[in-house]
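Memo to structure team: turn this sequence into C-alpha coordinates by end of day. - J.P.
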Amino acid sequence: MNSSSFLNMAAIGDFDPLSATIPATKVEITVSCRNLLDRDTFSKSDPICVLYTQGIGNKEWREFGRTEVIDNTLNPEFVRKFILDYFFEERQNLRFDLYDVDSKSTNLSKHDFLGQAYCTLGEIVGSLGSRLEKPLGGIPGKKCGTIIVKAEELSNCRESVMMQFCGNKLDKKDFFGKSDPFLVFYRSNEDGTFTICHKTEVVKNTLNPVWQAFKIPVRALCNGDYDRTIKIEVYDWDRDGSIFTDAKDTLQQFKRRATVGSAKRYQEYIRSNHDFIGEFSTSYRELSRGQSQFNVYEVINPKKKGKKKKYLNSGTVTLLSFLVDIEVTFLDYIKGGTQINFTVAIDFTASNGNPAQPTSLHYMSPYQLNAYAMALKAVGEIIQDYDSDKMFPALGFGAKLPPDGRVSHEFALNGNPQNPYCNGIDGVMEAYYQSLKSVQLYGPTNFSPVINHVARYAASVKDGSQYFVLLIITDGVISDMAQTKESIVNASCLPMSIIIVGVGPAEFDAMVELDGDEVRISSRGRYAERDIVQFVPFRDYIDRTGNHILSMARLAKDVLAEIPDQFLSYMRTRGIKPSPAPPPYTPPGHPLQTQI
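Reply from structure team:
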Protein backbone atom coordinates (compact mmCIF):
# COMPACT_ATOMS: atom_id res chain seq x y z
CA MET A 1 0.00 0.00 0.00
CA ASN A 2 2.99 2.29 0.30
CA SER A 3 3.08 4.15 -2.98
CA SER A 4 6.86 4.59 -3.26
CA SER A 5 7.48 3.19 -6.69
CA PHE A 6 10.44 0.89 -6.24
CA LEU A 7 9.08 -0.72 -3.08
CA ASN A 8 5.79 -1.40 -4.81
CA MET A 9 7.08 -2.76 -8.03
CA ALA A 10 9.89 -4.76 -6.48
CA ALA A 11 7.58 -6.47 -4.04
CA ILE A 12 5.50 -8.30 -6.64
CA GLY A 13 5.63 -12.06 -6.18
CA ASP A 14 3.40 -15.01 -6.96
CA PHE A 15 -0.17 -14.04 -6.20
CA ASP A 16 -0.99 -17.13 -4.15
CA PRO A 17 -0.91 -15.84 -0.53
CA LEU A 18 1.23 -18.71 0.74
CA SER A 19 3.45 -19.33 -2.27
CA ALA A 20 7.16 -18.59 -2.18
CA THR A 21 7.16 -14.82 -2.02
CA ILE A 22 10.23 -12.62 -1.71
CA PRO A 23 11.70 -12.90 1.77
CA ALA A 24 11.86 -9.57 3.56
CA THR A 25 15.51 -10.36 4.18
CA LYS A 26 17.89 -13.16 5.18
CA VAL A 27 19.27 -13.43 8.69
CA GLU A 28 22.27 -15.36 9.96
CA ILE A 29 21.67 -17.22 13.23
CA THR A 30 24.59 -17.83 15.58
CA VAL A 31 24.23 -20.23 18.51
CA SER A 32 26.20 -20.57 21.73
CA CYS A 33 25.44 -22.30 25.05
CA ARG A 34 26.39 -22.05 28.71
CA ASN A 35 26.56 -24.74 31.38
CA LEU A 36 25.38 -27.70 29.32
CA LEU A 37 24.83 -31.06 30.98
CA ASP A 38 27.98 -33.17 31.24
CA ARG A 39 27.17 -36.58 29.75
CA ASP A 40 30.71 -37.92 29.37
CA THR A 41 32.40 -39.83 32.17
CA PHE A 42 36.05 -38.92 31.63
CA SER A 43 35.70 -35.59 29.78
CA LYS A 44 33.20 -32.85 28.99
CA SER A 45 30.31 -33.28 26.52
CA ASP A 46 30.92 -32.96 22.77
CA PRO A 47 27.89 -30.81 21.79
CA ILE A 48 26.14 -30.25 18.49
CA CYS A 49 23.08 -28.04 17.88
CA VAL A 50 20.30 -29.12 15.51
CA LEU A 51 17.79 -26.54 14.23
CA TYR A 52 14.22 -27.49 13.28
CA THR A 53 11.63 -25.30 11.55
CA GLN A 54 7.87 -25.73 11.37
CA GLY A 55 5.72 -25.61 8.23
CA ILE A 56 2.79 -23.21 7.89
CA GLY A 57 -0.57 -24.88 8.45
CA ASN A 58 0.81 -27.98 10.16
CA LYS A 59 2.79 -28.71 13.28
CA GLU A 60 5.40 -30.94 11.67
CA TRP A 61 8.99 -30.14 12.65
CA ARG A 62 11.58 -30.48 9.89
CA GLU A 63 15.32 -30.53 10.39
CA PHE A 64 16.84 -27.38 8.90
CA GLY A 65 20.51 -27.91 9.67
CA ARG A 66 23.24 -28.78 12.16
CA THR A 67 26.23 -26.96 13.58
CA GLU A 68 29.63 -28.57 13.80
CA VAL A 69 30.55 -30.74 16.82
CA ILE A 70 32.75 -29.01 19.40
CA ASP A 71 34.78 -31.42 21.50
CA ASN A 72 35.06 -31.38 25.24
CA THR A 73 33.14 -28.25 26.31
CA LEU A 74 30.00 -27.31 28.23
CA ASN A 75 30.11 -23.75 26.87
CA PRO A 76 30.22 -24.11 23.07
CA GLU A 77 30.42 -21.15 20.69
CA PHE A 78 29.31 -22.75 17.43
CA VAL A 79 30.98 -21.41 14.28
CA ARG A 80 28.63 -22.84 11.66
CA LYS A 81 25.67 -20.45 11.12
CA PHE A 82 22.08 -21.03 10.08
CA ILE A 83 20.81 -18.70 7.32
CA LEU A 84 17.02 -18.23 7.38
CA ASP A 85 14.60 -16.24 5.25
CA TYR A 86 12.90 -13.71 7.55
CA PHE A 87 9.27 -12.65 7.09
CA PHE A 88 7.82 -10.08 9.49
CA GLU A 89 4.31 -11.24 8.60
CA GLU A 90 4.81 -14.91 9.49
CA ARG A 91 5.13 -16.74 12.78
CA GLN A 92 8.34 -18.66 12.11
CA ASN A 93 8.64 -21.29 14.86
CA LEU A 94 12.11 -22.64 15.63
CA ARG A 95 13.39 -25.47 17.82
CA PHE A 96 17.00 -25.91 18.89
CA ASP A 97 18.01 -29.40 20.10
CA LEU A 98 21.40 -30.05 21.73
CA TYR A 99 23.13 -33.45 21.68
CA ASP A 100 26.35 -34.87 23.06
CA VAL A 101 27.93 -36.66 20.10
CA ASP A 102 29.29 -40.09 21.02
CA SER A 103 30.08 -41.56 17.60
CA LYS A 104 30.29 -40.75 13.89
CA SER A 105 26.65 -41.76 13.32
CA THR A 106 24.36 -39.12 11.79
CA ASN A 107 21.39 -40.76 13.55
CA LEU A 108 20.56 -38.45 16.45
CA SER A 109 19.00 -41.28 18.49
CA LYS A 110 22.53 -42.71 18.82
CA HIS A 111 23.65 -39.65 20.83
CA ASP A 112 22.82 -38.24 24.27
CA PHE A 113 20.10 -35.57 24.36
CA LEU A 114 21.24 -32.44 26.25
CA GLY A 115 18.09 -30.31 26.09
CA GLN A 116 16.06 -28.08 23.77
CA ALA A 117 14.57 -24.60 23.44
CA TYR A 118 11.67 -23.18 21.42
CA CYS A 119 11.27 -19.65 20.09
CA THR A 120 10.20 -17.73 17.00
CA LEU A 121 12.51 -15.94 14.60
CA GLY A 122 10.56 -12.77 15.45
CA GLU A 123 11.46 -13.25 19.13
CA ILE A 124 15.16 -13.33 18.27
CA VAL A 125 15.22 -10.26 16.02
CA GLY A 126 12.79 -8.44 18.33
CA SER A 127 15.04 -8.92 21.39
CA LEU A 128 17.46 -6.20 22.49
CA GLY A 129 20.38 -6.28 20.08
CA SER A 130 18.73 -9.24 18.29
CA ARG A 131 20.13 -11.49 21.04
CA LEU A 132 17.87 -14.00 22.80
CA GLU A 133 18.89 -16.03 25.84
CA LYS A 134 16.68 -18.93 26.96
CA PRO A 135 16.96 -21.81 29.41
CA LEU A 136 17.24 -25.25 27.86
CA GLY A 137 14.60 -27.79 28.91
CA GLY A 138 13.29 -31.16 27.87
CA ILE A 139 14.86 -33.35 30.58
CA PRO A 140 12.60 -33.53 33.66
CA GLY A 141 14.31 -32.61 36.92
CA LYS A 142 17.53 -31.42 35.26
CA LYS A 143 18.97 -27.95 34.76
CA CYS A 144 20.11 -28.17 31.16
CA GLY A 145 21.91 -24.84 30.88
CA THR A 146 21.26 -21.87 28.63
CA ILE A 147 21.16 -21.26 24.88
CA ILE A 148 22.08 -17.87 23.38
CA VAL A 149 20.83 -17.18 19.86
CA LYS A 150 21.87 -14.09 17.88
CA ALA A 151 20.49 -12.84 14.55
CA GLU A 152 22.39 -10.73 12.05
CA GLU A 153 20.91 -9.45 8.80
CA LEU A 154 23.00 -10.46 5.79
CA SER A 155 24.60 -7.46 4.13
CA ASN A 156 23.55 -8.33 0.57
CA CYS A 157 19.90 -8.12 1.69
CA ARG A 158 20.38 -4.41 2.32
CA GLU A 159 21.38 -3.67 -1.24
CA SER A 160 19.09 -2.12 -3.79
CA VAL A 161 20.07 -1.27 -7.33
CA MET A 162 19.07 1.57 -9.64
CA MET A 163 19.06 0.51 -13.29
CA GLN A 164 18.10 2.04 -16.62
CA PHE A 165 17.64 0.31 -19.95
CA CYS A 166 17.06 1.35 -23.56
CA GLY A 167 15.95 -0.59 -26.63
CA ASN A 168 17.21 -0.40 -30.20
CA LYS A 169 15.49 -1.46 -33.42
CA LEU A 170 12.80 -3.50 -31.69
CA ASP A 171 10.27 -5.32 -33.87
CA LYS A 172 7.39 -3.23 -35.18
CA LYS A 173 4.13 -4.74 -33.91
CA ASP A 174 1.49 -2.06 -34.53
CA PHE A 175 -0.16 -1.81 -37.98
CA PHE A 176 -0.57 1.98 -38.06
CA GLY A 177 2.34 3.02 -35.86
CA LYS A 178 5.46 1.72 -34.22
CA SER A 179 5.54 -0.46 -31.11
CA ASP A 180 4.73 0.67 -27.54
CA PRO A 181 7.38 -1.36 -25.69
CA PHE A 182 7.71 -2.28 -22.02
CA LEU A 183 9.89 -4.76 -20.11
CA VAL A 184 8.87 -7.44 -17.59
CA PHE A 185 11.54 -8.85 -15.23
CA TYR A 186 11.42 -12.34 -13.69
CA ARG A 187 13.70 -13.88 -11.09
CA SER A 188 14.27 -17.63 -11.19
CA ASN A 189 13.24 -19.80 -8.25
CA GLU A 190 14.98 -22.82 -6.73
CA ASP A 191 12.61 -25.17 -8.59
CA GLY A 192 13.35 -23.69 -12.02
CA THR A 193 10.15 -21.63 -12.24
CA PHE A 194 10.09 -17.84 -12.64
CA THR A 195 8.39 -15.13 -10.58
CA ILE A 196 7.63 -11.64 -11.84
CA CYS A 197 9.53 -8.99 -9.87
CA HIS A 198 9.31 -5.76 -11.90
CA LYS A 199 7.73 -4.12 -14.91
CA THR A 200 8.74 -0.89 -16.58
CA GLU A 201 6.42 1.80 -17.83
CA VAL A 202 5.20 1.76 -21.45
CA VAL A 203 7.09 4.01 -23.90
CA LYS A 204 4.65 4.89 -26.68
CA ASN A 205 5.22 4.71 -30.43
CA THR A 206 8.92 3.98 -30.76
CA LEU A 207 11.24 1.14 -31.72
CA ASN A 208 14.11 2.77 -29.79
CA PRO A 209 12.67 3.29 -26.28
CA VAL A 210 14.53 4.71 -23.29
CA TRP A 211 12.81 3.50 -20.13
CA GLN A 212 12.88 5.40 -16.86
CA ALA A 213 15.48 4.36 -14.30
CA PHE A 214 14.01 2.20 -11.54
CA LYS A 215 15.13 1.00 -8.12
CA ILE A 216 14.66 -2.58 -6.88
CA PRO A 217 15.99 -4.51 -3.85
CA VAL A 218 18.59 -7.08 -4.83
CA ARG A 219 16.66 -9.73 -2.87
CA ALA A 220 13.65 -9.10 -5.14
CA LEU A 221 15.73 -9.32 -8.29
CA CYS A 222 17.67 -12.48 -7.45
CA ASN A 223 17.00 -13.35 -3.78
CA GLY A 224 20.55 -12.31 -2.95
CA ASP A 225 22.06 -14.93 -5.31
CA TYR A 226 24.24 -12.97 -7.74
CA ASP A 227 24.46 -15.83 -10.26
CA ARG A 228 20.73 -16.67 -10.36
CA THR A 229 19.11 -16.26 -13.79
CA ILE A 230 17.11 -13.09 -14.40
CA LYS A 231 14.79 -13.29 -17.40
CA ILE A 232 13.58 -10.14 -19.16
CA GLU A 233 10.69 -10.18 -21.65
CA VAL A 234 9.93 -7.38 -24.09
CA TYR A 235 6.30 -6.62 -25.03
CA ASP A 236 4.39 -4.25 -27.23
CA TRP A 237 1.55 -2.77 -25.16
CA ASP A 238 -1.94 -3.20 -26.60
CA ARG A 239 -4.86 -1.06 -25.48
CA ASP A 240 -7.00 -4.20 -25.13
CA GLY A 241 -4.69 -5.57 -22.46
CA SER A 242 -4.69 -2.41 -20.42
CA ILE A 243 -3.12 -3.68 -17.19
CA PHE A 244 -0.02 -1.70 -18.13
CA THR A 245 -1.50 1.66 -19.05
CA ASP A 246 1.00 3.83 -17.22
CA ALA A 247 4.04 3.85 -14.98
CA LYS A 248 2.11 4.88 -11.88
CA ASP A 249 0.32 1.54 -11.38
CA THR A 250 0.48 0.68 -7.68
CA LEU A 251 1.27 -2.82 -6.50
CA GLN A 252 -2.30 -3.38 -5.31
CA GLN A 253 -3.83 -2.19 -8.59
CA PHE A 254 -1.38 -4.38 -10.49
CA LYS A 255 -2.29 -7.41 -8.37
CA ARG A 256 -6.02 -6.84 -8.63
CA ARG A 257 -5.94 -6.72 -12.40
CA ALA A 258 -3.80 -9.81 -12.53
CA THR A 259 -4.85 -13.40 -12.72
CA VAL A 260 -4.49 -14.99 -9.28
CA GLY A 261 -2.18 -17.99 -9.54
CA SER A 262 1.29 -18.95 -10.53
CA ALA A 263 3.82 -16.77 -12.30
CA LYS A 264 3.52 -19.07 -15.32
CA ARG A 265 -0.22 -18.45 -15.62
CA TYR A 266 0.42 -14.75 -15.14
CA GLN A 267 3.02 -14.78 -17.89
CA GLU A 268 0.46 -16.43 -20.19
CA TYR A 269 -2.01 -13.70 -19.21
CA ILE A 270 0.44 -10.99 -20.30
CA ARG A 271 1.24 -12.77 -23.57
CA SER A 272 -2.43 -13.17 -24.43
CA ASN A 273 -3.10 -9.46 -23.85
CA HIS A 274 0.05 -7.88 -25.29
CA ASP A 275 2.29 -8.66 -28.27
CA PHE A 276 5.41 -10.60 -27.33
CA ILE A 277 8.49 -9.10 -28.99
CA GLY A 278 11.17 -11.34 -27.47
CA GLU A 279 13.25 -12.15 -24.42
CA PHE A 280 16.77 -12.44 -23.05
CA SER A 281 18.46 -13.66 -19.85
CA THR A 282 21.17 -12.28 -17.61
CA SER A 283 22.24 -12.34 -13.95
CA TYR A 284 22.95 -9.78 -11.26
CA ARG A 285 26.67 -10.46 -11.61
CA GLU A 286 26.55 -9.71 -15.36
CA LEU A 287 24.45 -6.59 -14.84
CA SER A 288 26.85 -5.36 -12.14
CA ARG A 289 29.50 -4.84 -14.84
CA GLY A 290 27.52 -1.75 -15.73
CA GLN A 291 27.35 -0.11 -19.15
CA SER A 292 29.62 -2.17 -21.39
CA GLN A 293 29.63 -4.49 -24.36
CA PHE A 294 28.68 -7.30 -21.95
CA ASN A 295 25.35 -5.64 -21.23
CA VAL A 296 23.97 -5.28 -24.75
CA TYR A 297 21.43 -8.08 -25.15
CA GLU A 298 19.89 -9.54 -28.29
CA VAL A 299 16.11 -9.84 -27.93
CA ILE A 300 15.15 -13.28 -29.24
CA ASN A 301 11.67 -14.46 -30.23
CA PRO A 302 11.91 -18.30 -30.16
CA LYS A 303 8.95 -18.79 -32.56
CA LYS A 304 10.43 -16.45 -35.17
CA LYS A 305 13.84 -18.03 -34.76
CA GLY A 306 12.35 -21.47 -35.37
CA LYS A 307 10.51 -20.38 -38.53
CA LYS A 308 13.00 -18.05 -40.24
CA LYS A 309 16.48 -19.26 -41.22
CA LYS A 310 17.83 -15.72 -41.63
CA TYR A 311 16.37 -14.48 -38.32
CA LEU A 312 18.98 -12.68 -36.22
CA ASN A 313 17.03 -10.99 -33.44
CA SER A 314 14.06 -8.76 -32.66
CA GLY A 315 16.25 -5.84 -31.66
CA THR A 316 18.56 -5.23 -28.71
CA VAL A 317 18.21 -3.97 -25.15
CA THR A 318 21.12 -2.15 -23.53
CA LEU A 319 21.85 -1.46 -19.86
CA LEU A 320 22.55 2.28 -19.58
CA SER A 321 23.34 2.53 -15.86
CA PHE A 322 23.72 0.36 -12.76
CA LEU A 323 24.09 1.92 -9.31
CA VAL A 324 24.08 -0.01 -6.02
CA ASP A 325 22.75 1.58 -2.84
CA ILE A 326 22.82 0.24 0.74
CA GLU A 327 19.39 0.60 2.34
CA VAL A 328 18.53 1.12 5.97
CA THR A 329 16.17 -1.75 6.77
CA PHE A 330 13.26 -2.48 9.09
CA LEU A 331 15.51 -4.76 11.14
CA ASP A 332 18.04 -1.95 11.66
CA TYR A 333 15.38 -0.03 13.59
CA ILE A 334 14.23 -3.12 15.52
CA LYS A 335 17.82 -3.98 16.44
CA GLY A 336 18.29 -0.38 17.56
CA GLY A 337 15.45 -0.78 20.05
CA THR A 338 12.34 0.56 18.25
CA GLN A 339 9.26 -1.02 19.85
CA ILE A 340 6.07 -1.90 17.96
CA ASN A 341 3.03 -1.27 20.15
CA PHE A 342 -0.06 -3.32 19.35
CA THR A 343 -3.62 -2.27 20.21
CA VAL A 344 -6.77 -4.22 19.36
CA ALA A 345 -10.30 -2.79 19.02
CA ILE A 346 -13.27 -5.18 18.79
CA ASP A 347 -16.74 -4.52 17.41
CA PHE A 348 -19.45 -5.18 20.02
CA THR A 349 -22.42 -3.99 17.95
CA ALA A 350 -25.70 -5.91 17.97
CA SER A 351 -25.40 -6.92 14.31
CA ASN A 352 -22.91 -9.60 15.46
CA GLY A 353 -25.80 -11.54 16.97
CA ASN A 354 -26.43 -12.81 20.50
CA PRO A 355 -23.10 -14.26 21.78
CA ALA A 356 -25.04 -17.09 23.45
CA GLN A 357 -26.28 -18.34 20.06
CA PRO A 358 -24.10 -20.48 17.72
CA THR A 359 -25.06 -18.19 14.80
CA SER A 360 -23.35 -15.21 16.48
CA LEU A 361 -19.94 -14.06 15.25
CA HIS A 362 -19.05 -13.68 18.94
CA TYR A 363 -20.18 -17.21 19.89
CA MET A 364 -17.72 -18.88 22.27
CA SER A 365 -17.63 -22.49 21.10
CA PRO A 366 -15.83 -24.94 23.39
CA TYR A 367 -14.38 -26.59 20.26
CA GLN A 368 -12.93 -23.77 18.15
CA LEU A 369 -12.13 -20.06 18.11
CA ASN A 370 -14.65 -17.65 16.60
CA ALA A 371 -13.60 -15.36 13.74
CA TYR A 372 -12.84 -12.45 16.10
CA ALA A 373 -10.58 -14.60 18.26
CA MET A 374 -8.85 -16.11 15.22
CA ALA A 375 -8.09 -12.70 13.70
CA LEU A 376 -6.85 -11.35 17.04
CA LYS A 377 -4.64 -14.36 17.71
CA ALA A 378 -3.28 -14.55 14.14
CA VAL A 379 -2.09 -10.94 14.09
CA GLY A 380 -1.28 -10.52 17.78
CA GLU A 381 0.95 -13.56 18.14
CA ILE A 382 3.28 -12.19 15.47
CA ILE A 383 3.39 -8.54 16.56
CA GLN A 384 3.95 -9.44 20.23
CA ASP A 385 7.51 -10.50 19.42
CA TYR A 386 8.41 -6.85 18.77
CA ASP A 387 7.04 -5.46 22.05
CA SER A 388 9.36 -6.00 25.03
CA ASP A 389 6.80 -5.70 27.87
CA LYS A 390 4.06 -7.73 26.11
CA MET A 391 1.37 -5.45 27.59
CA PHE A 392 -1.35 -4.65 25.05
CA PRO A 393 -4.27 -2.19 25.28
CA ALA A 394 -7.52 -3.92 24.29
CA LEU A 395 -10.57 -1.80 23.46
CA GLY A 396 -14.18 -2.40 22.47
CA PHE A 397 -16.76 -0.22 20.72
CA GLY A 398 -20.51 -0.22 20.10
CA ALA A 399 -21.71 -1.71 23.43
CA LYS A 400 -23.79 -0.68 26.46
CA LEU A 401 -21.67 -0.86 29.59
CA PRO A 402 -22.66 -1.81 33.12
CA PRO A 403 -23.92 -0.58 35.49
CA ASP A 404 -25.87 2.27 33.83
CA GLY A 405 -26.10 1.03 30.23
CA ARG A 406 -24.28 3.96 28.64
CA VAL A 407 -23.12 3.38 25.05
CA SER A 408 -19.35 3.47 24.58
CA HIS A 409 -17.15 3.43 21.47
CA GLU A 410 -13.87 3.29 23.36
CA PHE A 411 -14.02 1.04 26.42
CA ALA A 412 -11.35 -1.14 28.03
CA LEU A 413 -12.01 -4.86 27.61
CA ASN A 414 -10.52 -5.52 31.05
CA GLY A 415 -12.98 -3.06 32.63
CA ASN A 416 -10.24 -0.67 33.74
CA PRO A 417 -10.34 2.58 31.70
CA GLN A 418 -7.27 3.93 33.55
CA ASN A 419 -5.22 0.86 32.61
CA PRO A 420 -6.60 -0.99 29.54
CA TYR A 421 -3.41 -3.09 29.20
CA CYS A 422 -3.63 -6.87 29.07
CA ASN A 423 -0.75 -9.26 29.74
CA GLY A 424 0.16 -10.87 26.41
CA ILE A 425 -2.19 -12.03 23.68
CA ASP A 426 -3.64 -14.63 26.05
CA GLY A 427 -4.54 -11.77 28.40
CA VAL A 428 -6.28 -9.93 25.55
CA MET A 429 -8.23 -13.07 24.65
CA GLU A 430 -9.33 -13.52 28.28
CA ALA A 431 -10.45 -9.85 28.53
CA TYR A 432 -12.41 -10.25 25.27
CA TYR A 433 -14.24 -13.33 26.58
CA GLN A 434 -15.00 -11.61 29.92
CA SER A 435 -16.39 -8.53 28.13
CA LEU A 436 -18.83 -10.69 26.18
CA LYS A 437 -20.30 -11.79 29.51
CA SER A 438 -20.66 -8.28 30.97
CA VAL A 439 -21.56 -5.79 28.20
CA GLN A 440 -24.67 -5.58 26.03
CA LEU A 441 -24.11 -5.55 22.27
CA TYR A 442 -25.60 -2.38 20.80
CA GLY A 443 -24.38 0.15 18.20
CA PRO A 444 -23.66 2.08 16.01
CA THR A 445 -20.32 1.09 14.39
CA ASN A 446 -17.97 4.02 15.04
CA PHE A 447 -14.24 3.68 14.30
CA SER A 448 -12.97 7.21 14.92
CA PRO A 449 -12.86 7.03 18.76
CA VAL A 450 -10.49 4.03 18.83
CA ILE A 451 -8.34 5.47 16.00
CA ASN A 452 -8.08 8.75 17.93
CA HIS A 453 -7.24 6.80 21.10
CA VAL A 454 -4.14 5.24 19.53
CA ALA A 455 -3.28 8.44 17.64
CA ARG A 456 -3.02 10.34 20.95
CA TYR A 457 -0.30 7.94 22.09
CA ALA A 458 1.45 7.97 18.69
CA ALA A 459 1.46 11.79 18.65
CA SER A 460 3.44 11.83 21.90
CA VAL A 461 6.29 9.64 20.57
CA LYS A 462 7.53 10.84 17.18
CA ASP A 463 11.25 10.20 17.65
CA GLY A 464 11.26 6.73 16.04
CA SER A 465 11.53 4.84 19.35
CA GLN A 466 7.98 3.50 19.01
CA TYR A 467 5.55 2.59 16.22
CA PHE A 468 1.87 1.80 16.78
CA VAL A 469 -0.31 -0.80 15.07
CA LEU A 470 -4.09 -0.74 15.61
CA LEU A 471 -6.09 -3.85 14.70
CA ILE A 472 -9.83 -3.18 14.27
CA ILE A 473 -12.02 -6.28 13.92
CA THR A 474 -15.57 -5.53 12.74
CA ASP A 475 -18.60 -7.22 11.23
CA GLY A 476 -20.22 -4.48 9.26
CA VAL A 477 -21.02 -1.15 7.78
CA ILE A 478 -19.28 1.84 9.33
CA SER A 479 -21.54 4.55 10.82
CA ASP A 480 -19.10 7.48 11.22
CA MET A 481 -17.44 7.46 7.80
CA ALA A 482 -16.67 11.21 7.66
CA GLN A 483 -15.15 11.28 11.15
CA THR A 484 -13.16 8.09 10.48
CA LYS A 485 -11.70 9.49 7.27
CA GLU A 486 -10.66 12.64 9.13
CA SER A 487 -9.08 10.54 11.89
CA ILE A 488 -7.11 8.49 9.33
CA VAL A 489 -5.90 11.61 7.48
CA ASN A 490 -4.74 13.06 10.81
CA ALA A 491 -3.07 9.78 11.81
CA SER A 492 -1.23 9.42 8.48
CA CYS A 493 1.49 11.80 9.70
CA LEU A 494 1.99 9.79 12.91
CA PRO A 495 4.02 6.61 13.55
CA MET A 496 1.07 4.27 13.22
CA SER A 497 -0.66 1.79 10.92
CA ILE A 498 -4.25 0.54 10.96
CA ILE A 499 -5.38 -2.99 10.08
CA ILE A 500 -9.10 -3.60 9.60
CA VAL A 501 -10.33 -7.20 9.44
CA GLY A 502 -13.94 -7.69 8.36
CA VAL A 503 -15.63 -10.82 9.75
CA GLY A 504 -18.93 -12.33 8.68
CA PRO A 505 -20.89 -12.17 5.41
CA ALA A 506 -21.53 -8.38 5.18
CA GLU A 507 -20.58 -6.20 2.22
CA PHE A 508 -17.54 -4.12 3.11
CA ASP A 509 -17.57 -1.57 0.29
CA ALA A 510 -16.85 1.38 2.60
CA MET A 511 -13.74 -0.36 3.95
CA VAL A 512 -12.21 -0.49 0.48
CA GLU A 513 -12.39 3.32 0.38
CA LEU A 514 -10.60 3.50 3.74
CA ASP A 515 -7.92 1.13 2.43
CA GLY A 516 -6.82 3.83 -0.02
CA ASP A 517 -5.22 1.55 -2.59
CA GLU A 518 -7.18 2.83 -5.57
CA VAL A 519 -7.59 6.45 -4.41
CA ARG A 520 -5.65 8.03 -1.55
CA ILE A 521 -8.08 8.78 1.27
CA SER A 522 -9.00 12.43 1.90
CA SER A 523 -11.06 14.49 4.30
CA ARG A 524 -12.32 18.03 3.68
CA GLY A 525 -9.80 18.58 0.89
CA ARG A 526 -6.80 17.16 2.79
CA TYR A 527 -5.19 13.96 1.54
CA ALA A 528 -3.54 11.37 3.77
CA GLU A 529 0.22 11.88 3.87
CA ARG A 530 0.82 8.12 3.77
CA ASP A 531 -1.37 5.11 3.06
CA ILE A 532 -1.62 3.59 6.56
CA VAL A 533 -4.77 1.42 6.31
CA GLN A 534 -5.00 -2.20 5.21
CA PHE A 535 -8.45 -3.82 4.99
CA VAL A 536 -9.19 -7.50 4.35
CA PRO A 537 -12.34 -9.62 4.70
CA PHE A 538 -11.51 -12.70 6.79
CA ARG A 539 -13.74 -14.91 4.61
CA ASP A 540 -11.19 -14.62 1.78
CA TYR A 541 -8.62 -16.50 3.91
CA ILE A 542 -10.67 -19.32 5.40
CA ASP A 543 -9.26 -22.70 4.45
CA ARG A 544 -11.90 -24.86 2.75
CA THR A 545 -10.71 -28.00 4.53
CA GLY A 546 -11.32 -26.43 7.94
CA ASN A 547 -7.63 -25.97 8.80
CA HIS A 548 -7.89 -22.94 11.11
CA ILE A 549 -4.12 -22.74 11.60
CA LEU A 550 -3.76 -22.26 7.84
CA SER A 551 -6.61 -19.71 7.76
CA MET A 552 -4.91 -17.65 10.48
CA ALA A 553 -1.51 -17.87 8.79
CA ARG A 554 -2.99 -16.67 5.49
CA LEU A 555 -4.74 -13.76 7.18
CA ALA A 556 -1.67 -12.65 9.14
CA LYS A 557 0.56 -12.95 6.07
CA ASP A 558 -1.61 -10.59 4.05
CA VAL A 559 -2.48 -7.97 6.66
CA LEU A 560 1.02 -7.70 8.13
CA ALA A 561 3.09 -7.88 4.94
CA GLU A 562 2.91 -4.12 4.37
CA ILE A 563 3.71 -3.01 7.93
CA PRO A 564 7.52 -2.90 7.42
CA ASP A 565 7.15 -0.67 4.33
CA GLN A 566 4.66 1.60 6.11
CA PHE A 567 7.04 1.74 9.07
CA LEU A 568 9.99 2.64 6.82
CA SER A 569 8.00 5.26 4.91
CA TYR A 570 7.33 7.10 8.20
CA MET A 571 10.95 6.92 9.35
CA ARG A 572 12.36 8.00 5.97
CA THR A 573 10.00 10.93 5.44
CA ARG A 574 10.89 12.16 8.94
CA GLY A 575 14.62 11.63 8.43
CA ILE A 576 14.76 9.32 11.47
CA LYS A 577 17.82 7.06 11.50
CA PRO A 578 17.96 3.78 13.43
CA SER A 579 19.51 3.98 16.88
CA PRO A 580 22.83 2.17 17.13
CA ALA A 581 22.52 -1.42 18.28
CA PRO A 582 23.62 -2.05 21.87
CA PRO A 583 27.24 -3.16 22.29
CA PRO A 584 27.94 -6.88 21.86
CA TYR A 585 27.13 -8.94 24.93
CA THR A 586 30.10 -9.84 27.11
CA PRO A 587 29.42 -12.93 29.24
CA PRO A 588 30.15 -12.78 32.98
CA GLY A 589 33.76 -13.59 33.72
CA HIS A 590 34.16 -17.30 33.99
CA PRO A 591 36.77 -19.44 32.26
CA LEU A 592 35.51 -21.03 29.06
CA GLN A 593 36.63 -24.49 28.08
CA THR A 594 39.19 -24.73 25.32
CA GLN A 595 37.43 -25.56 22.05
CA ILE A 596 38.73 -27.79 19.32
